[in-house]
Design a protein that fits this description.
5-stranded parallel beta sheet; Oxidized Rhodanese, domain 1; alpha/beta; 2 domains; single chain; 10 strands; 279 residues
Length: 279
Amino acid sequence: MYSSLISPKTVNEHLEDPNWRFIDCRYVLTEPDKKQKEFAESHLPGATYAHVNHDLAAPHIKGKTGRHPLPKIAELSKTFSAWGISSSTQVVVYDDAGGAYAVRLWWMLRWLGHDAIAVLNGGWPRWLKEKRPISAEIFIPDTAEFKASLREHWLVTAEDVQNNFDNPEVRVFDARNRDRFRGENETIDPVAGHIPGAVSAPFAENLDADGNWKSKSELRKMYLELLDGSPVEEAVTYCGSGITACHNILAMCYAGLGNTRLYSGSWSDWITNSERPVA
């Protein structure tokens, strides 16, 4: 079973395996449908497309929710069943943005109890660079029965975060880039800044210069310093809307540190209540 990262070589060896499913999560925030068109032109053989807005998020209610609310569990179970994911299925997810979007599906499946889910290390760019097989054929998987087994404690709310402001055991990580953390160059959300007490931990720093994930030892050292003695299972990660925050969760998991928690509403949810403090 592969449950964190997986190499293109290993994926290539299992392209014909009926118990494996490949999900393409390519996406661009500013052009939401662009990557689905690119998927139609070329993708991993046997891959299914997952649209971040339609498949991996519920509709955004302006001023009430974050930009990418989690779908209802029943809806997700229906989607995963349609993609042919059962308890015995090995799932591989990928994108062309260093895993920035694929990690959302990685986290969601694990949140619902499915551990056989891995992110393609290096993603679509590395797959192409290594001249591995591609296809334009649209694959229709046989449906399966996905049974959710919820890990409730992996998810926290804004209230949970606020209630632990003075708790040194709860480290809060902000996965956005450093300028947005500082409240500079905010072009996405209507309020700039970060959650008070949060630590800047940009997800892009989990990757090396080639867009591959850093080694386990490098990531472990980096996150142990960021945790500063606090327990990983109490830590909380957020970003703009609960997508790239999952990158940090995977980094800690891959580094062997354990499972941390997600504030899925993230910054775009935090600022829907003007009474919540902003730093």
